[in-house]
Amino acid sequence: MRTINKLIAAALLTIATCHPINAQQNMKNVLNQRQQNIVAIACFEAKGDLENLFGAIYTGLDEGLTVSEIKEVLSHLYAYTGFPRSLNGLGVLQQVLADRKAKGITDKEGKDADSLPEDFDALKEGTVVQTRLSGAPFNYTFAPATDYYLKAHLFGDIFARNNLTFPERELVTVSALSGMKGVALQLKSHVRGAKNMGLTDAEIHSIPEALMQKVGEAEAYRAKKAIAEVYGEEFKEGEPIESRVFPIGEPNTAYAKYFIGNSYLAALASGEGKLHVSNVTFEPRCRNNWHIHHKGGQILICVGGKGWYQEWGKQPQELNPGDVVDIPAEVKHWHGAAADSWFQHIAIGVPAEGASAEWLEPVTDAEYNKLK
C-alpha cells in the first residue's frame, strides 16, 4: 500500500507541475476569435465562475473586444441570469481593467450604443423584435406583467442598444443558457431565436465546440443536445461529466480496436524518467476489452462520471469520482463507462522492466447489459 501511495503522490505531483493541456486544440468551427471570446465570457458569467470569467475577459480584451462590448454582454445577461451574476460580472470587468491599467495596458473603450429617438416606443418595437425571434407572435397571457417586461424592456429597451447586433445578442444568450442547469426549454427556444435573428447554421453548430475548448464538456453537451433537437438531428444521450478538471484530449484511435464505443486520450505526463499518466474519457457504454498488464500493473484514479471495473471471476465494481483502483500485474480485467454516463479516469502505469499489455476478447453486450 505504501508503494501505491507513493506512485499516486508522484503522479499527482507530475500532473500538477506539467503544462495544462487545452482540449481540442485544433478546434474546427466557423466562429471567429471575437465570437469565441463572447461565448466564453457569457458562459462563465452564467455559471458564476468569476475566476475563469476574469481570464476570459482578459483574453477577450487582448484579442480585440472593446470595453463597451464586454459591458454590453454582461449587462444584456441580467435579463437571463439575474442582476446578481450580471453585477458580479461587471465587477470582474472592473478588476480586469484595473489590473491591466496597473500593467500599463490601455484598452479600447469602443462605441457605446446610440441614443434612442425621443419617440421610441419600447413596447411596439419590442413586440416586433420578439415576434422575429420567436418566429411568430407570442403573448404570455398567464402573466401579463411579465409579458410586458419581455416585450417593452428586454426586446424593446435592451435589444434596441446597437453596440451588439441581434445575432451577437443571441450568441450571448445561447452560450449563457448552455452554462445553466434546468433551462433546456429556454435554451432550445434561443437556438431557434439565434437562427431567426441571423446567426448562420454553421455558426450555431460551432457553439458547442467553442464551449468545449473554452469552458467545458457539460456546457458543450447542453448546447449540442439543444441544437440537435431543434434541427432534428441524431443525438446520443448520456450524462456529461459536469465538473471536468482534466482535458478530454483526442479520439483514442490508436487503441480503438480494443474498445467498444468511443474513447478519448489525453497524455498528462510521459517520457524518460516519468510515470506514464493519461486521462481516459469514455462515452456512455464505452468500455475496453478484457486485458492483462504484464509485469507492471496499473492504477486508476476516477475523476468524473460513473463507470465500472471488473476482474475475471469477480463481481463488477461501480466506480465514482474519488475511487482508486489498484490493478495488480497479471490480472485479467476491464473498465469503462456506465450505460447512462460519461466516465473519466486517470490511468497510471506502474513502472516495470519489460511491462506490456495483452488485449483479449471484448466485453459483450450480453455481459455489459447485466450491470446494474
Please describe what this structure looks like.
- The chain folds into three domains: 166 residues, AhpD-like, CATH 1.20.1290; 40 residues, no CATH class; 119 residues, Jelly Rolls.
- Helix 2 crosses helix 9 and helix 10 packs across helix 12.
- The protein is built from 13 helices and 13 strands.
- The strands form four sheets. A six-stranded antiparallel sheet has the order 1-3-4-12-7-10, with helices on one face. A three-stranded antiparallel sheet has the order 9-8-11, with no helix packed on it. It has a two-stranded antiparallel sheet with strand order 2-5.
- The protein has 372 residues and is of the alpha+beta class.
- A hairpin with a 5-residue loop joins strand 8 and strand 9.
Order of H and E elements = HHHHHHHHHHHHEEEEEEEEEEEEEH
Global Rg? 24 Å
| End-to-end CA span | 30 Å
CATH topology of the largest domain: AhpD-like
Largest sheet: 6 strands, antiparallel
Strand element count: 13
Helix content range: 40-55%
Quick one: CATH superfamily of the largest domain?
A: AhpD-like
- By CATH reckoning, the class of the largest domain would read Mainly Alpha
Which class of secondary structure composition applies to the elements?
A: alpha+beta
CATH architecture annotation of the largest domain: Up-down Bundle
Q: Taking strands numbered 1, 2, ... along the chain, how are they ordered across the largest sheet?
A: 1-3-4-12-7-10
Q: Which spans of ≥5 residues are poorly predicted at pLDDT below 50?
A: 17-27
Count of separate DSSP helical elements: 13
**Average residue pLDDT:** 90
How much of the sequence is in beta strands?
15-25%
Count of the domains? 3
- Net shape: elongated
